[in-house]
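Retro notes, item 3 of 5
We never archived the inputs for the 3VV complex last cycle. Fixing that now. Sequence and ligand:
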Amino acid sequence: MMPELVTPQESDGEVRLAALAVLAQQARDLVDAVTLTDVPEDELTAVTAELVALTERLGAVRREGPLRHEFGPDGRFRHLGNAVVGDCNPHALPLVVGRTAEGGVRADLAFRPSHVGPPGSVHGGVSAMILDHLLGEAVAAAGKAAMTGTLSLKYRRPVPYGVPLLGAAAVSRSEGRKTWAEGAISLPDGTALVEATGLFITPAQWVGIGTDGRETAEARAADGGDPVEGGRSGPR
Ligand SMILES: CCCCCCCC/C=C\CCCCCCCC(=O)SCCNC(=O)CCNC(=O)[C@H](O)C(C)(C)COP(=O)(O)OP(=O)(O)OC[C@H]1O[C@@H](n2cnc3c(N)ncnc32)[C@H](O)[C@@H]1OP(=O)(O)O
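Structure as it came back at the time:
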């Protein structure tokens, strides 16, 4: 039988989303446990059988797609399903990004053993994913809604997992629809492990849309001052 499709609008109360975030965290802990487990084979088989049953229970009612960009109850734009920052996405660290006094962004982070690539250190693609997002957040902090056009990485030293690290990024310049940003993942003492530069491009159809998905004041003025009711929908 086909599972029933439930749209986000029908199912997403804040209490349910909070429960989903707890489930996502448990799933992250499960991934760590799978990555590091050394229990005997029969126990692996028994746990797998239980996980098959749990997977079926969760899949009994499925939504059409991952959680979308939306406005939270505090009026802030959020994306709980995001692969890097989404509290409800088990794939996300999740990264908690804050703004700096200088207009850039920063985030404390610690990679998990499941992020391993080369012996004892984090996969370069995982570092790239984090830096892509941080640079994008820096661009958003500068008021630009944009997507990554190019991303260039300099891997200076192996990135360890399981230890506190710092991610930071800031915009370096902006020209029309193009914005350049740079950033790094560093040890707490400031030693840079991976450095990134990127070009972010505001898609032509996003011109006049702010980083909260709503029409900007400039665009409203150009349109004759009529605000867009409820804002345009964000990227899916
Ligand atoms: C509804 C609004 C809601 C707003 C929401 C804002 C949220 C902010 C909040 C929170 C921050 C979150 C942070 C996220 C961070 C993560 C970001 C990602 O991972 S993004 C996924 C990976 N990137 C893609 O999938 C892009 C795929 N590519 C495209 O969609 C297009 O190619 C795009 C938008 C990059 C360019 O398309 P065109 O049609 O606008 O571009 P054309 O008009 O042809 O070119 C404009 C100029 O840009 C250059 N250009 C175009 N693409 C380029 C590229 N890839 N690299 C370098 N230059 C490029 C061109 O040569 C041209 O330059 P010349 O004006 O001639 O000087």
